[in-house]
Description:
It is a single chain. The chain has helices at about 20-35, 55-65, 85-95, 105-110, 165-170, 185-195, 210-220, 255-265, 275-285, 305, and strands at about 10, 40-45, 75-80, 100, 140-145, 150-155, 160-165, 170-175, 200, 225-230, 230-235, 295-300. The protein is α/β, with parallel strands linked by helices. It has two domains: about 10-80 and about 230-305, 3-Layer(aba) Sandwich (Rossmann fold); about 85-185, Rossmann fold (3-Layer(aba) Sandwich), CATH 3.40.50. A three-stranded parallel β-sheet has the order 1-2-3, with helices on one face. A three-stranded antiparallel β-sheet has the order 4-5-8. A two-stranded antiparallel ribbon has the order 6-7. It starts with 7 loop residues before the first strand and ends in a 6-residue tail after the last helix.
Amino acid sequence: xxxxxxxxxxxxxxxxxxxxxxxxxxxxxxxxxxxxxxxxxxxxxxxxxxxxxxxxxxxxxxxxxxxxxxxxxxxxxxxxxxxxxxxxxxxxxxxxxxxxxxxxxxxxxxxxxxxxxxxxxxxxxxxxxxxxxxxxxxxxxxxxxxxxxxxxxxxxxxxxxxxxxxxxxxxxxxxxxxxxxxxxxxxxxxxxxxxxxxxxxxxxxxxxxxxxxxxxxxxxxxxxxxxxxxxxxxxxxxxxxxxxxxxxxxxxxxxxxxxxxxxxxxxxxxxxxxxxxxxxxxxxxxxxxxxxxxxxxxxxxxxxxxxxxxxxx
Length: 313
């Protein structure tokens, strides 16, 4: 556990491929916000999904962050080393009767309605016990009961948010049928254990935040302050990601950092930067959350997914 500080942020990439422009936006925003508040900034490797994890990807992520001038506080945290903490959290939820086993398959879920976030809403088929025709299924997930919870919070950029969990999500998974812990539970335990006070990340995660707040309350963790910055879209209107084959970050770090700074509509410097250190000194003093575009998504610079950031002069 970490000692109390007024601001502790984090960046938590998954080691499934190289960082790209979308990753840079989130990393830059979270790092600049932490340093502007004279706070700490931790690096966590979210490698809970073992089949998708690549060792070479983690090495590449660390090398890229170092080349781009990011400096983190303390040792790097790996989710893969924290399974016992997730087990302990699940045990607490089981003891309080907050979770139950679920034998529904992905095919079963495909017939369920879509919620406001575009995800399938789980109707509670196993809430009162696994159905007789599913008893032979050996693989079971664990779901948390949302009951009639309505979660409200205010995002620093996106404003007031509200989600009726039963209507929009349903009872959600905290441990998967394959034995791996779900993202929602793992990050809540990590953020709680390490005293994360502020979370700055992409607005694509805005819809999952109420689930995390719900779990924070269930597990008696403090609720961080949230800031969800716009995500970058490619020419097809898809979020830049590894799945959409976003271009890896280029070697020219200074040019890429300037591009991300512009994307976030931050104050332009009086002159061009001559070094990475100069950029970060300026970013720490000039960072202005009030200038961030108050939207969940914006087009990435034209041609980014094909040519990297070559077009920024």
